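Encoded backbone
================
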Amino acid sequence: MHRHGAATRSATREAAKLRMRPEYAGLALVILANLIAGCVLTQTTDGTPLEPDAVKEIVIGESTRADVTRLLGTPDEIVYSN
């Protein structure tokens, strides 16, 4: 019976060594959440979708800004960048 108790204590000590320290549990949770969130892909469309037939009528180098506005309508937003 003495031998069985020693084996139990030894197994308990080994289990305690394998337990995650509390200060690392939060870090592990944050890393896991970021990994899961990083696997999500999304696609959005702002404004009104373009009509394929109207886009086909636009000719690069020939269609004017007025032509494009007539075909597609006025823009929802104009963004200027460098």
